[in-house]
Design brief:
Belongs to the actin family. With about 650 residues, the protein is of the alpha+beta class.
Length: about 650
């Protein structure tokens, strides 16, 4: 056969295959589809001045270029104009939260205050003398007689001008919108999560629109970046340690597709805190305005089982301080928690008056000013005693906050799955169980009629239960070997560290339901800050890791910026840590200002450091990749277990 005849025959076969394919399509025959392979990350030179770091918080958002010394910090609030006249006005609360007006709330507050007073009395001052308690009545007698002095007939503070009817206002402008204007006030993030509720602006779509509006405003007004130029910029987004995957997915979608960033990296706040402080390992304690998160980070990896999120923070201290001020006859008698500017004043008073220094005792005189729009500037005198110490101690005795019937402690729960991400941990769990079953049946065949011993049964049950909480790559081993490897990497799961090892003998369904019940019971408790730190460290896998964490407890966020906080927390940790570790740990250290930096900026600074690392090249998710593969990219590229 000649060469020409061979080519003719091959061409005929190819045409025949194409005709068969067309016929199958016409008949509706489905051919197997091979899933698209995610390409390897490309390595390219990145200019860090074209990388934007975004650190969103409940009260403030911090945004800046990775090359900036300091980020732009803006109140994370937006005022949206009513679409129709006569529409009822709505405002998200600032210091008020659910669970405060229950019948048991006041009794719980009083009981918490008794525990605080006992703790204050039990710890001696540096001179070896016990502190003399000061009752609120002693201060009240003086404060009730106080009348304000007029400093100026005009406070020189004005409401935001809304005469040009802007559709929305952001940050400080939103805070100073006149309550009589036709604007709703929204805080899109509450306690580290989307502020989703049944009221106006409480839908997922509305929250995402608010975030996009606030962040776009900061980029345009403060960083002077036109939105059309964002295609030349990349973004680093910091997310909480215990994150909602659906929320993260929606924000990434918004940043890449709506705002138009060319690429993004998503990383956890706790890991970025270690980068920003220059520490390789630390127990990171982020005391924010509305939540407090604790997590152990080792060599750039957040230990999944050590993550805790406490549903209280600096704003709860502020509200408690206001309650104590009222008991002491607060001279500004028109102060109300429902007023935005009064909340701002109370935050300021907490920051300048409160402390955790037990050497400061007795009654002391102070003064403060009020400057509100359309009102004179006033000067008040006030006498305070133990109130300044009692309020911040609520972080260690959270019953003082008087919150009843709310979930106060959050743990890392199992992922519920996403239809866009079929190869998640549920898929790994089901395939792992099939491997377990096939290997077990093979072992049974090899063993013949010999019964399986108790040890083999235990290991197979334990292995299945453990991998239910394991991330990809950690449950690859079959039987007890895979479990041992996972235990070394991750340690016991949160539920099992609470339950004890004996529960592993239960069947799988009973084991998981029991674990869920224990976790729910644990989450209903309000752990004090010191107990939460001890619990988080105790969930680490090895004694060596625990020793590292005790020697490096890093405090970030603005909720614990009180005089004496470092010494106070160190004393409580040393007194409550397990006696066995007091001998092992050479030096327990609490770090509140690493490199003498503002603790509120450390996480953002860590995000900026991340942008400069060579290892981040493999973590970038590009806009085109996100459009094609969606949330699968986070599983492939995120530096933490998605």
């Amino acid at each position: 056969m000649t060469q020409a005849e061979k080519e003719l025959e091959c061409g005929g076969k190819e045409k025949e295959k194409e005709r068969d394919k067309e016929k199958e399509q016409q008949r509706g025959v489905k051919r197997p589809i091979t899933p698209a392979v995610i390409p390897e990350a490309t390595h390219e030179q990145i200019q860090t001045n074209f990388v934007i770091v975004i650190n969103p918080g409940s009260r403030s958002v911090r945004i800046g270029r990775a090359t900036d010394t300091l980020p732009v910090t803006v109140p994370h609030v937006i005022a949206r104009r009513h679409k129709q006249s006569g529409q009822p006005r709505y405002e998200d609360p600032w210091l008020i939260r659910d669970g405060l007006n229950k019948p048991e709330s006041n009794e719980q507050r009083q009981n918490g205050l008794k525990m605080v007073d006992q703790a204050i009395w039990s710890k001696k001052m540096s001179n070896g003398v016990r502190r003399t308690p000061v009752s609120a009545e002693q201060a009240r007698a003086y404060n009730c007689q106080i009348r304000p002095a007029v400093l100026d007939s005009s406070s020189r503070v004005k409401w935001t001008n809304t005469g040009h009817h802007p559709p929305y206002l952001v940050g400080e402008e939103a805070l100073y919108v006149n309550p009589s204007d036709c604007y709703n006030i929204h805080w899109p993030i509450v306690r580290g999560q989307f502020n989703i509720h049944s009221g106006p602006g409480g839908s997922m779509t509305a929250v995402l629109a608010d975030l996009e509006a606030i962040w776009s405003h900061v980029l345009q007004k403060h960083l002077e970046i036109p939105l059309k130029d964002l295609k030349y910029y990349r973004c680093i987004l910091l997310v909480p340690n215990i994150y909602n995957r659906q929320h993260v997915k929606e924000v990434v979608n918004m940043l890449l597709l709506n705002m138009g960033f060319s690429a993004i990296i998503v990383h956890q706040e706790s890991v970025c805190a270690t980068f920003g402080s220059g520490l390789s390992s630390a127990c990171v304690v982020d005391v924010g305005d509305q939540k407090t998160s604790v997590c152990c980070v080792e060599d750039g990896v957040s230990h999944r089982n050590s993550r805790l999120c406490l549903a209280y923070g600096g704003s709860d201290v502020t509200r408690t301080f206001f309650w104590l001020l009222q008991r002491a006859g607060f001279p500004y008698r028109d102060c109300q928690l429902s007023k935005r500017l009064d909340c701002q004043l109370l935050q300021h008073l907490k920051e300048i008056f409160c402390h955790l220094n037990q050497d400061i005792s007795g009654l002391q005189d102070h003064e403060f000013q009020t400057r509100f729009p359309e009102a004179p500037a006033l000067l008040y005198q006030i006498r305070l005693g133990d109130e300044k110490l009692q309020a911040p101690m609520g972080l260690f005795y959270p019953t003082t906050f008087g919150i009843v019937g709310q979930k106060m402690t959050l743990l890392q729960h199992r992922y519920q799955g996403d239809p866009e991400d079929p190869h998640d941990e549920h898929y790994l769990l089901s395939t792992q169980s099939k491997q377990d079953q096939s290997s077990k049946s093979a072992a049974d065949r090899r063993a013949g009629a010999r019964p399986v011993g108790l040890e083999g049964e235990m290991s197979s049950q334990c292995g299945f239960g453990e991998t239910s909480e394991l991330p990809r790559g950690c449950g690859g081993g079959v039987g007890s070997g895979g479990v041992m490897q996972a235990e070394m990497e991750l340690g016991p799961t949160q539920g099992e560290s609470l339950m004890g090892a004996g529960e592993a003998e239960e069947p799988l369904s009973g084991h998981l339901s029991r674990k869920t019940a224990i976790m729910s019971q644990f989450e209903s408790k309000a752990l004090g800050l010191d107990k939460a730190i001890l619990h988080s460290i105790d969930c680490c896998a090895s004694d060596e890791t625990k020793r590292k964490m005790y020697s490096s407890i890093l405090i970030v966020g603005g909720g614990l910026m009180f005089q004496g906080a470092q010494e106070f927390l160190l004393h409580r940790i040393i007194n409550k840590m397990p006696p066995s570790f007091r001998r092992l740990v050479d030096n327990v250290e609490v770090i509140t200002r690493p490199k003498d930096m503002d603790p509120r900026l450390i996480m953002w600074k860590g995000g900026a450091v991340l942008a400069c690392l060579d290892t981040t090249q493999e973590m970038w998710i590009h806009q085109t990749e996100w459009q094609r593969f969606g949330v699968r990219m986070l599983r492939e590229r995120a530096a933490f277990v998605w």
